[in-house]
Amino acid sequence: MKCVDNIPKLYSDSDMRQCMPIKSIISILAVLACLIFPALITCSHDSTLKKKPVSVRGVLDLRDWNFTKDGPLNLDGEWEFYWDRLIEPSDFTKRADRKDCGFISVPGLWESCKVHGADLPGNGYATYRLKIISGPDKKMKFLSIHRIFSAYTLWINGVLADKREEADKSPKTREDYIFIHSKRISSFTLHEGENVIVLHVLNNENKSGGIDRPLRLEDGHAASQRAFWKHTIGILVVGMLLFASIYNIIFYFFRKNEEAPLYFGIFCLVWAVNIYNLQIPVLSGSLSYHANPFLLDFITAIVSLPLCVMTIKSLYPDDFSMTGVRLAQALSVGCIIPLLFVEFKTADLIFRIYVILVFFFVLYFVYVTVRTVVKRRDDAILFLIGFTALYVCGVNDLLYSMWIIDTANITQYGMLVLCISTSTVISRRFSRALWTIGELSRDLAEKNIYLSKMDRLKDQFLANTSHELRTPLHGMIGLAESMIEGDAGSLTPKVRENLSLIASSGHRLANMVNDLLDMAKIQDKGLNLNLRPVDIYSLSEMVVNLSLPLVGGKPLEIINNIKPDISCVCADEDRIRQVLYNLIGNAVKFTNKGTIELSARLVFQADEDRDAGIATAVEVSVADTGIGVPDECKEEIFEAYGQVDGNNTRPYPGTGLGLAIVKQIIELHNGTIGVASGKNGGSVFFFTLPIAKEPLADTSDENFIESMSDGLSEDTIPNRPGSFSEISEGSFSGNPVFLVVDDDPVNIRILRNYFESKRCIVKTAADGISALDILDRDDSIDLVLLDIMMPVVSGCDVCRRIRLKRPPEELPVIMLTAKNMISDIDDAFEAGANDYVVKPFRLNELMARVSTMLKLRNICKSAATGITIRGRNRAYSLTFRDIIYITSSSKNIIVHTREGDIEALLLMKEIADRLPPDIFVRIHKSYIININYIYSISHVLSGRYRVRLRDDDDTELPIGAAFLESLRKKISL
Question: How confident is the model at residue 500 (pLDDT cuts 50, 70, 90)?
Fold first, then answer.
């Protein structure tokens, strides 16, 4: 048996994180609950929900209790109680000594008990006895005694285990602080069967004697391990507080006009000393018996109050009263001076009074911090978080010290949160204080001038470039549409479809060019309106018909619900057509399925006008069932060049000018425009136009149709692609397989037309994910044409993933994109691209680059020494010399090697294209052989031959008549 002194208090590790400012106190409290309550839960000593045994009439049965699995156990329940008798353990063997046996509930003081019908006095002595029935458990156990009034002697199984003063009847025995506050631990081993604990307790001066706290029995290894972690975490907290202290004090020396860092740095230092003294008592061993070893703990706790108050006053001088600072300082001085000269009992009383008075300061702290949050003071929420964390942890410790809850002391964690939050407040204030208002104003003014200049230069550049594009663009559109109408004679359906795609692409580009020009005009206030009465119904019908090709293959329907008898509006017909086309096109872009509905209604300025039927405006709405517009973006979408996602993976490309131009045009008509959420999802764009006061004139849409062909001349028509005779036909022999990856179906069709005319096999993908999926399933791809700007996964990312499995010499990748900046080209080559072609490209140039890539691939394939094929479960890397022959099996192939047979998920043609022709030869539609393994070729029947291979099985394979000539060229028969 041995007694262990000065076991550190148990602290559980809690996950405290610094929280950034949030918008409501409710959210703050929720965050604090997430921080504090896990700490309280994990601090609990009880690790099981199993029902705990209690002693009954002095007997505690622990045979079903496993301390390793079930955790520690309080020895609560009925103990044998012998009042006014101090019975030695050996005396219990005599039955006579047990004749006055009573029972008392533990924990509990004996003042509330009765013996022979009489209440017991507070002073006196008694013997406690508990019999423990234990199973076979040879592990070391710890018995913890938290508080017994006043002196006691402990025996376990007849052996003296612990002793505090002489628990005898002499008047010299008296209460001392150590019996109230010190936790004592005795170690022993439970015997199988009966174990007896005998405890002598004597009290002379305290109000009542007895066992005030539970006696806890626990596994020795677990208790030692918990004590170790508690001590380690405590030291870590001390280190963090010291770091914060040094950090803030150094901060103060750089900004001496700010006193908050100094006060808070000293505050952190004081608490670091306090927590360290709890871990490793500094004064306990050096003071006399009746001195106060908790003096340092008391002083540091008391000094922290004025330091905290002065910190708050420095941070929020307008919210914290100076009177509160003076009261805190006076209270601290008034408590510390007496503590230096009194014994523990008096010191403990003074400290308890101090704690009660501090409660009123806490209420004032809460009032001040909440007021700072309400007034939106700088980082007030951060300080509130730290203060609330400390308050919750302090309440927990108070309840734990009163044994109301069974958790642990966690004030150190609350102090750590306060330290982090307040340090963050101070740091953020200093970072903001580095710039003065004058410096910010000058810098902002200079940047505004610079940005305005750059914005004007950008608009001028876009306007000039767009203007130069209009003439050849109109020529392209007019030529394509005239051929569709039959000016060049009858056309095949495929030619007509291709020309329609050309016209559609030209119209899209024309709209973009017009948008750029219109924006430049609007910003220069040079956009003139030709106002006249406009039939909104007829105009909407025409725009809907023009917009139908935009739908493509989507399950989307455009419905025009505008009534034919709707009032005419006073507007520029061309501009309103542009507005409707942009709104419908925008709806088509962001709606994958469902409907797009156009509607219109009259707007009345007042109820009297409604009764009289006098409308002032017409409101036109375009409602879709698409993805909708987030509330935070409803203003942003009407800004020029404003896009929610403008990177390479944005799913909805565009210039970002359409809605900005629409807004400007409507406002020039003295109308309004807005967006709202639809009833069934999606969005509703609506705009108003004033009602025309004049009747509608006879107009037609001829001007609009004619405007599409204005400016056409022979010199504006681009040169037709020349013949491809200069391109080596040998590069495209063998029907190479291309993978075209582009999110624009027009670009895919153009490239398909180019290469299918060269007898190439073209496979397509509309996005990067689909392309990677095709490459994973299909090893026959010879070359990839890859667009950079695509939804979900950009072209560069796709190329990087390709290079993880296929090197450049095995699978060439050519980037096709309109991004021609040097940085874009560098990114493409860094991603692993073999070549880079800028759109729009000449067909001859593209064919030449593709031909070069195919030639290089064939050269590398001939120089290769092996091949990688994908089996059912894994990939195999094989050298050509190990492959004997290959046979086809349904849609798979079987590769016969020296080591065995491998079944691969490939077609015979796909593997044939990847084998060097100087080593392998196809002798049958189902057989490819390695010519190095040919042993002999023999004639079987008339015109029929077979080959015998040099392998372990002497394999014989038939030679197809169609392949005999190619075999003759390889070997001499």
Answer: confident
- What one-letter code names the amino acid at 156? I
Spatial distance between the Cα atoms of 461 and 449, rounded to a whole number of angstroms: 18
290 and 426 co-located in one domain: yes
Span 657-700, pLDDT tens digits: 778 888 888 998 999 999 888 777 789 999 999 998 887 765 44
Query: What's the burial of 372, exposed, middle or buried (CB within 10 Å: 0-12/13-18/19+)?
Result: buried
Task: Report how many domains make up the chain.
Answer: 6
Q: Give the strands of the sheet with 108-109, arranged side by side.
A: 108-109, 210-211, 148-149
Give the per-residue pLDDT at 597. Answer: 93
Average pLDDT over all residues of the chain: 77
CB burial readout 185-223, b (16+ within 10 A) else e? bbbbebeeeebbbbbbbbbbebebbbbbebbbbbbbebb
Residue 162 lies in a domain: yes
Cβ(155)–Cβ(92) below 8 Å = no
User: Is residue 907 within 8 Å of residue 893, measured between CB atoms?
Assistant: yes
Q: Report DSSP letters for 854-870, one per residue.
A: HHHHHHHHHH--EEEEE
Q: Which residue has the higher pLDDT, 681 or 36?
A: 681
Per DSSP (E only), the strands in 298-377 are none
- Enclosing H/E stretch for 895: strand 892-897
Residue 682 maps to which CATH number? 3.30.565.10
pLDDT of residue 94: 63
> How far apart are the C-alpha atoms of 478 and 491, rounded to whole Å?
17
Residue 308 has pLDDT above 60, yes or no: yes
* Mean per-residue pLDDT, 774-800: 87
Same domain, 540 and 681: yes
Q: Distance between CA atoms of 37 and 955, rounded to whole angstroms? A: 77
The amino acid at 595:
T
Residue 255 tokens read as 């900004």
Torsion angle defined by CA atoms of residues 436, 442, 445 and 450, in that order, rounded to the nearest 10 degrees: -120
What's this model's pTM, rounded to 2 decimal places? 0.40
Rounded Cα distance, 741 and 748, in Å:
7
Domain range enclosing 354: 8-22+33-41+234-432
Do residues 421 and 295 share a domain? yes
What's residue 182's pLDDT?
55
